Amino acid sequence: VDLPDTTETEIHNLLRQRLSNITGVKLLGWNPPNAKTYGLPNILIPKFREQRRAGSDRVDACMTYEDVLILTEIKAASSEMVADIAKLRRIYSYWDLLGITQILTRQGIRFSPIPRAVVPAIAFGTLDSSLPQDFLCWHVQPGVYRQIAGVQIPEKDAEVLRRLRAAFERTQDNPEM
Amino acid sequence: VKESLGVVLTASSQYEVWCDKPSDKDLVRAFSRVSAFWSRISSVQIIPNMSREKLVANPRLAAIAPLLDYDRPDMIIMLGGRPVLVIEITEHGYTGDNPLQRFARLARAAEMGIPSIHFTPFARTRYDEMLYTDNPTSARKVSSRLFEGFLRLTRVYGVPVVAMDWAVSRQGLPIRPSNDNEIRQIYGEVIDYAEHLCEHDGEHVLHGESILNCQVIARAIEATKKKAAQSNVLESEIRIENVPYPRVCQLVSEPKSIVDLIGSDYFMKGKDHKLVALRAIEDSVVESVETPGGLLDVSSARADVGRLLPAQFGEKAWLVFYSGYEWRSQPNGGIVVNTEILYCRSEFGKTVRDRNQYLVVVWPRVFWNRSHPRRIALLRELEAFVDSSQTTRLGQLIVQKRIARGIPLDHPNYVAYNADSIGTWAEGGEAGRIYRNYCDLIILNDRVLLGNHWKM
């Protein structure tokens, strides 16, 4: 399919709109490109436990579906996401589920239910590179909503994500359906 | 339909709003769900990114172009095609310089005779503290200089510049709405004040008539006055008032003498970045000076700087403001405008020519010449220090500081490197425009610049 170029901001808007309409998805934080938000907060994850001056990472979108917490980075094209994937891997290698939920709770996020697992995700408008196998991936264009779960995602989490996929892709104007 | 200032207004097309970002536009739409006034706004648009020339040439945008001279306000409410109210909404409070970041925008609105609202948490927790503990962290109050500055703008320009508090959560973070009821709870003061000002006083604003006696406006000014009275700032070490002109001339001839003026102890406490600035000061040599008659090369001979610059410079005392920041627009721009209006402007002076004391900013981390060998060398030294903590002059200074203050030598430093760490002046940039408009002199690392109002 010859898809038009879609900007990062448009991907943000499309993804947010789609996820907002899915029953069971709870959006916890959103950080649009070069913009502030008045509704959902920006989510920050400290780089280190003790060194507060070392700074924090901002996560583009943060949500739960059932009992899975999903931290998402968003760009216009998948090939632009090397640094984003590395950032999420760094967060995951440094903080465990308990640590991440604790940091989010400190920012005023309330979980119900408490997440059982955390899954890294990327969203993009143009698929022009290979995708990380341990990530959930969303390919988003006007009229196109595809969800691809990497094969290295643990089966119990993948099962939850399959239910999310059904909701995410369920739309009449989706040519992939 | 009514006639007003030659513009035909209809009830439905009377008001429009120009916004900085899509999120600001979303917020206007949220306001319109809870307010009859906001729901009558006929058009909500995002200000396009275009040059001032193009803005002025566009009939729909020409009226807002002057408001964008320094920076883009979050919302501009228009009545009959002309601005009547500017609104700034920011969750970034904190102490020190941060809250002053948006001051230049509101100063510009006041200069244009347009009232404004600054909506921010008056006290909130810092992310970089609360992220590290489950225990409550202390809320940081916004610098009272912000409120003092608003009152001064109100007095000088005769238009209300008021501050409103963004309520915070138990964690001390600004509360965000999750439904329409909460929009009114959180932003109600802004929503109602904007409605009153536009509906009751909008025409007066358009006619340049004072609205300061309006009860609602006067109450908001009084509330801002109360905040200003709660002084919460220490005397600044980097703002030196009543400096005689010969001492300013010495700063031009010998930029290193700023260390004597501030005191070397200033650099040996607090953030390590101060020592990056100290390194830039150590190497600073002014090679050219802008004068009313043109640029003069002073690299070969130490000229009598006092004679090169406008004769009026010797007639008043000076305020010397030192900026240790890297090249970036904010908070530098906001601080300079706030400093100028509070400490340099005469009682009712409407222009930067109306001074009690002149303003010189010393900014050693910024060069005029991007390719200057001294800039390149400073950047290389900084990069080498950050990458490998090689033995460098900067490293020596940091060790000296550690020893002097009893800090372990292996204590982490948070010095970062990028091309703007030792930056270059950009005439068209936000900081460039603001500094040129509000300062009399700007002492960069390699050149002295003259404020726009002194150019022939």
Give a short summary of the structure.
Chain A has 177 residues and is of the alpha/beta class.
Tell me about this structure.
- The complex is a heterodimer of chains A (177) and B (456).
- Chain A is an alpha/beta fold and 177 residues long.
- Chain A is built from four helices and eight strands.
- Chain A has helices at 8-20, 82-94, 97-106, 155-169; strands spanning 25-30, 43-46, 56-59, 61-65, 68-74, 117-124, 136-141, 144-149.
- In chain A, the strands form two sheets. Chain A has a six-stranded mixed β-sheet with strand order 1-4-5-6-7-8. In chain A, strands 2-3 form a two-stranded antiparallel sheet.
- In chain A, a hairpin with a 2-residue loop joins strand 7 and strand 8.
- The longest helix of chain A is centred in the C-terminal third of the chain and has 15 residues, at 155-169.
- The radius of gyration of chain A is 15 Å and the shape is globular.
- Chain B is α/β, with parallel strands linked by helices and 456 residues long.
- Helix content of chain B is 38%, strand content 17%.
- Chain B has helices at residues 22-34, 36-39, 52-57, 103-111, 127-130, 144-157, 180-206, 215-229, 245-253, 258-262, 273-283, 305-308, 332-344, 373-388, 393-405, 430-438; strands at residues 2-4, 7-9, 15-19, 43-46, 75-79, 82-89, 116-120, 123-124, 140-141, 161-165, 239-243, 288-291, 294-297, 318-322, 358-362, 366-367, 423-424, 441-443, 447-450.
- In chain B, the strands form five sheets. In chain B, strands 11-14-15-18-19-12-13 form a seven-stranded mixed β-sheet. In chain B, strands 4-3-5-6-7-10 form a six-stranded mixed β-sheet, with helices on both faces. Chain B has a two-stranded antiparallel ribbon with strand order 1-2.
- Chain B starts with a strand and ends in a 6-residue tail after the last strand.
- Chain A binds chain B through residues 9, 13, 32, 34-41, 44, 46, 49-56, 102-103, 106-108, and chain B through 21-23, 26-27, 30, 89-91, 127-134, 169-171, 173, 176-178, 412, 414.
